Amino acid sequence: MKHNYGTAILSAFEYLLENYSDAVVIGQGLWSPWYVGNSMTNLDKKFGVERIIDTPVSESACTGAAVGAALAGMKPIVVHPRMDFMLYAMDAIVNQAAKWSHMTGGQASCGVTIRAIINRGGEQGAQHSQSLHAWFAHVPGLRVVMPSTVSDARDLLIASVLSPDPVMYIDDRWLYDLEDTLEPVSEIDLTKEGPKILRSGSDITIVASGYAARLALEAAAELDVLGIASEVIDLRILNPLNPELIIDSVGKTRHLAVIDGGWKTCGIAGEILASVAENTIPGALKKQPIRIMLPDAPAPTSIALEKNYYPSATNIVERISLIFGRS
Amino acid sequence: MDDFLLQELSDPDHFQEPISIENIDSDTLIRYLNGMLRIRYAERRLARGKKEGDIGGPVHLGVGQEAIAVGISGNLRKTDRIFGAHRSHSHVLSMGADLYRLFAEVLGKDDGLSRGMGGSMHLWDQANGFYGSVPIVSGTVPLAVGAALAAKLQNTEDVGVIYLGDGAVEEGVVHESLNLARVMGVPVLFVVENNLFASHMHISLRQPKYATARFAVANDMLYEIVDGNDVVKMHQTSKNLISYARTNSMPVFLEAVTYRWYGHVDWREDIDVGVNRSEEEVAAWRKRDPVARLVCAMLARGVYSEDDIESLELRIEKETEIAWQQAKESHYPPHSALLGRVYASKMYD
Known about the structure:
The structure holds two protein chains of two kinds. By secondary structure, chain A is of the alpha/beta class. Chain A contains twelve helices and 14 strands.
């Protein structure tokens, strides 16, 4: 069936709510979900306001309540229409959900899913634009999931909710129009998922996640024209990170670029570079690896500054061409 | 009115007389006394263990506050969802937690309530209704609301209970949680153990009024303020509130005024580090002892003789010591526990 990224998320919600009576959704705007594109339309009408819970403006208490409901055996999904506002809920996510299994000696766990949406651009500025996935990938106990494809948007959401662990599911408004067909749902085990090759190539390994993986694919098509064959790896699961596929790929291509929508300093790209450096012999890379990320500045509002702030396919092509001495 | 009552309750020269035990049968009184003494001896043993160096981590002791949890827990089911905070030994013991397992936990042993992974500040005993305690002030408050919301969605008629201190009401998430619980009709009991201190600071230096129940009023919630050192009053007041929460699926609020004899953490009285805490004040509060006030009432009615009390205390002291020694001798968690419990479902099986 024909879908886009947004309706794929919607179909994951429908699947979960139809098949799991203990699945509930809580968050702001759910009874008028215009904040979240087409990804939650009419869930309240279809499944009732008891299970699709619109809330007061209380990110902290609502996330904490979802954590508590998970401890009491439910499968709650808490929705943060914009990741920036979710920062009020850091205690519930980092101190509580992420620690529960370890602190209780594995006797209990917190199967909450936190859907954090990246919503940026359009001159929204510093507090309406952040991509903080790397922060959460730093925390042991949290699983961090970033789908870049239509099928992952649906299937990784279902897998996140069925996981007994707390999962940060991060989707991106810039991907909602991406189209693809979807097969009927087949449940997958999140613990078995990891990075995936989206496109094979022999000259350079490009690693990215979420929207950056789409940019990487666009850039790879243009690089082909220049005679540079790119292997694009979609990270998908940022924590716990399994870098094996990337290390193997770099062993083949001997070149590495990491594209990411977060800041450079202490970002996920640095972690990828470190994993490759630690697990390959000196000289394994023929050229210095590169990171293409946000500059270390908050998002600007002015269009003049914003247009150069986010990585673009053109930008990626230019940087990678330079590695190979072409332009 | 509330402030007037609270001013009186917070004055240690009041409420020192034996508690009223009219119409309470002897078995119930004996149960209260047993429950409170079990907690008191356990915490005194922990104080000694900390002082003598057997315990590594911090222990937050609630000696003097035993009547609150004992009074409330008598109205709870094992299927209710109880959450605590940093000072929660009494909350978990009053629900029936095994003393050996509590001691083992504080000592970081594998047989502990949290398999030795939590220590005194992260207790867990879900089989007895205790969903967990954490030391981040107010961290468990929204969790209790969520667990109680789950009870409502699951149609179990169970309630949530959250123990918090007077310091916790200074955290923003408590106010979000009170509002959320009220607007969503969540069956949860908020228990503020108002012992007048947050760490070293007296409430008069932190809040414009003593009565934290003003936040129940602000959230249109049924509430009571009660002498937290009167186990009979604690039991009866919480009984009515819990019954209301269960029947009507609504949040309720109970402010219990009390005092901790030890300082914020470990075995010292912390007279020196307490702002507005004095030797005279601690001595006065010791006279409002929830155990002694019950004992006096029981002696006066002839429920127990002096000898009965003495032999009861001896028995509990002995049981406590046996549990302590057993816990000391038990083994530590395996090294594999460090990485093996980070996720419920591991990445590599």
